Structures are given as structure tokens and as C-alpha cells.
Amino acid sequence: MAHGAYMAEIASLGGGIKALTYNGEPLVETYEGLPPMCAGVVLAPWPNRTEDGCFTWRGTEHLVPVNEPERNNANHGFVLDAAWDLVYYATDRVQLTTRIEEPWPWPTQLIATYTLDAAGLSARFEASAEGPAPFAFGLHTYLSARGAAADASELTLPVTEHHLLDARNLPTGEVEEVVVKRQRIAEVEWDDCFHGHGPLTAEYVSAGKGVRLEMGQGLDWVQMYTPADYPGRGRALAVEPMSAPPNALRSGTDVAVLNAHQPIAYELRLSAI
């Protein structure tokens, strides 16, 4: 995809953003081959972790496969490694779709639409089901401040709560007040959950240049992750917009209900600073 100074690449595997540049400078971390560390992929029908792969919805217990065995969690849903189908392609617009079925008890259709224009890359994610179904959404975005090293970059994000996680990366129930303003990434090691009152906008910059991530209505949760070994980069920063927190299927916190003929949509935009 191309428009003016912007170029973008959307991945059919995982349905997410593989590359986005402005005047040739990266706004997200890219990759070769398969998405490393869930880079850019869509997280649905839940983001983050579900404790023991077990939850109860409307009085019935359900099991989903554990794919994080070292912590015994079911992590990031079913579509992060799915091959999405191409619906529409133009130089400035791409639409993909995938369907979630077994072992998820509620068949759910997802449509991802990406549009590139002078304001940047906008994305809309729509979910629908034929009957009442639980649903939560996330996008595993790794930001790049025009290619600067993560440890030379700063993040501003108007979240107000830091939800503490245990050794399994599950919420403990403890909440701390937090301010993330011009936070030097060199000073933090995160795999942490934050909450704010949207709409939230993240600004990630180095020497005054970088990327802006605008999160639309319903994306009030953010997981932030600073791996030390992103391929080809070392330290990196994931800013993951989410509609619900870790372990939401167990706690019920902010889990949406998909009803017949009533799709739910989430939107976000990435642009250069």
C-alpha cells in the first residue's frame, strides 16, 4: 500500500501490520518471514492471557487450548497465526477476513480493513456472530520512532492505572496510579498492563520524530512489552491496544457480547510525528 510519503504492508498471516514507513523511515518494527513475538498480529477473540485455558460464560465452563505452557495460560486467541483471506485490495486500501470456529464454541467472523491516506494508516476491525458470544480484541503493535533504538526513545501515553501482574502475567487485583509522560524506554522493563479513559493516544519519539498511535473507542486497555531480543533490533517496545485486560474471560472485565446482526468494531490510526 502507498499514499504520498507513507508505505504499508499488511500480512495475511495474523491479519496485522507488517510494515509502515514515512519517507522511508519505519513507524512500526517489521520482520522477515513469520511474525516474531506476535509482531503486528490481531488478537481475538481475546487478547493476552486466560488462566489455565478455562473460563465460565453464562453458567457454562469452557476450555481453550493452553499455548503458553510455562505459565499454563491460553494466550492471544486464535487468529494470530491464522491465514486470513483477501477480500479487497487497492494501492491505498486492503480488506482481510477470517472465521473463528472450533475449539471456540461461538463461530465468529472478523473483518480487518486498512486504509492509507495523508493522515496515516487507519485500521478498522469488525467482529460478528450469529448468537450471544463473548468477545475481546487486541492488536500486538511494535512501535518504531523512525528507526531509532528503543533505548533512545520516549513514550507518552495518558493511562492512569497500572494493573499489577503476577509471575504468570495475570492480574493480582492490585492497581497503582501511574503517569507515562516522556518515559525513557531505557529506564523500564515492561510486560505490564495499563488502563486509561479513552480515547488514548500514544506518542513514541526520539529527537522529536516518531509515531503516533490513536486508539478508538473501547480500546482503553494497553499491554506494554519491552523484549530484549526482537530479531534484528534487540530492545523493542510493543504498545498493544486492547478492549479488555489480561484474564478477561475469567474475570468478565470489559468482555463484549456479540449478538446476531449487531457487529462490534474497533478502530485505530498510526501516523508520523
Automatic annotation (TrEMBL):
Coiled coil: none
SUPFAM superfamilies named among the record's database cross-references: Galactose mutarotase-like
Pfam families, per database record: Aldose_epim (PF01263)
Protein name: Aldose epimerase
Source species of the chain: Corynebacterium striatum
